[in-house]
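Hello forum,

I keep getting stuck at the same step: I have a sequence, I want structure tokens, and every attempt I make locally crashes halfway through. Rather than fight my setup again tonight, could one of you with a working pipeline run this one for me? It's a single chain of 633 residues.
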Amino acid sequence: MRLRVCRPDGGFRSVLVASLPFAREDGTVVWYGNVFDITDRLDAERRAAEAAEEGRRVHERLSSVAMIAPVGLYEFRRQADGSIDFPYTTPKFEDIMGLSREEIGMRGGDVLRRIDPEDLPHVLASIEDSARDLTLWSQRFRIRHPERGLIWLSGASAPRRQEDGTILWAGALHDVTGDVQREAELRQAHRLAEAMRAENERQALHDGLTGLPNRRFYDRVLSSRIEAARAGQGPRDCVLIRIDLDHFKYVNDTLGHEAGDRVLIRVAEVLRQMLRAVDFVARIGGDEFSILLGPDMNQDNARELVERVQGALSRPLTYEGRLCRFGASFGIAHTGDITELGAELQLFADAALYRAKEGGRNRMEFFTAELHRNILNDRRIAVELHEALERDEFEPFFQPQIAAEDGRLVGAETLLRWRHPEKGLLSPDDFMHVAEQLRIVPEIDRIMMRKARSALARWQDQGLVLPKISFNVSSGRMHDPDVVSLARSMAGGGTRVTFELLESILVEEESDAFRFHLDQIREAGIDIEIDDFGSGHASIIGVMEIAPKALKIDRRIVRPVACDMRSRNLVRAIIEIAETLGIATVAEGVETEEQAKILRGVGCQVLQGYLFSHPLDEGDFLAFTRADLKKRA
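Reply #2:
Ran it on my machine without issues. Output:
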């Protein structure tokens, strides 16, 4: 039996007592036996039992985790002879593979045959690599599940080699079909986003109507070509062709904007057909196009290309049964080293294009040394114009207008002059084209009108009341509040203010807005005259709608009246039209007495020209009027 005994030192020990009884002759019984101290043995047994219980609890916890974990746990074993089995699998593993534990035990290595044939070679090769190097095995693959069809799995396990050569992998397997689908959806979304980005970029760099690259794309290509040449990574020569359509506004105005769009599409098609793959063409705005030829091209190549484009554009184009008549002007600039010119090459091509337009349109012009000198001169003028504004060098000059009947002063036209500190007195022909580019014409106009107003006031103080003063005004300036306000401030006191509008403006500006501005000007007490009449194409109906106070007959018609009967008849016809409409007439450019006599004879009412006086500054004009009054007296 087991007993606990108390030792003299106060401690307890466990003992095992075993004995056998023996009867004596005297009838007593004696027990013979052993006493063993089993305290240490019992402690060891207790510890072993506790360890076993803890192992049981751990196993239960691991089993519980394995049951609820989203992955299937397994041991995969490859024997030394190459045979394969799965000594341990969790139910989740079995569910993922679509096999029972018994089937897995029976199939052994054939379990791998569930893997999709396309993926199986990669899986087997990765197992070989892991076995050889004892490295972590990780693979994503597909299997054919008996219920769920083709699904994606991801497995990972760590190998260890046993003493007998067996390799055992312990790892986890989980179903990643949802992840793969989401990844595919994300890739598709990324592809769509990239396609949209590419399309947005294409649209941002291309013209929506013609499909050609736009100004932004063109600027980028030209800059890249210049940078490549400077870096020694691209050709240094370059040919740039600028194209501007002729009479395109006429097509829009007469046939409509859809016809204009058809013209632009036709031009784009022609340019695509004529150019090589190494050439670059862009629509840079409105009816303007630019062509950058590929390397190793010269002016002769450009001329040949332009002639072919002109030939193709000359073929008739109809829209809704009506012929679209248009042409194109070409400006060509060539350089052997674009690094020296850079973006200025565009300026040179523009200058050549401008020359082609001036020369009659529907033609080509090459940039020349003369054009280069003109550009340098214009740059110098641009700097000097700003200085002229600061130094107040612009002055109004006045050219007298004389009554044809009796020679009396009936008005004056205000003309701009620039008193240049070095070049002397300059007329607008010398600098106004640069002023327009600098957009300082409105400021110059205001200066002229303010100074003319001051001159009128000073003349009135000295007894001169000018019957009429006129100003050349562009259509864009008619509704400028400053201009109208200045003109209104001059009206009164016996002086009428007149705005002279070019006949070409009337052709281009026949719109409701234009007529509205005309009405505003008349309400402000300002008269309208049509300048250079006979030089444009204004219709009689247009003149009637504008209802000007006078027609100013173009000097080119007036000049030959003394020797050309056709001119004389034309002047007579204009005067008859004016009389029919109740409009006065003014003849410009009168230089001889014979011209004046003929104009007077055909009924022209007012004469203006060098015969009477050149344009005069304020002081000289006052002296002229006093001398005329004395002469008439």
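The chain is about 45% helix and 25% strand. If your local run keeps crashing, start a new thread with the error log.
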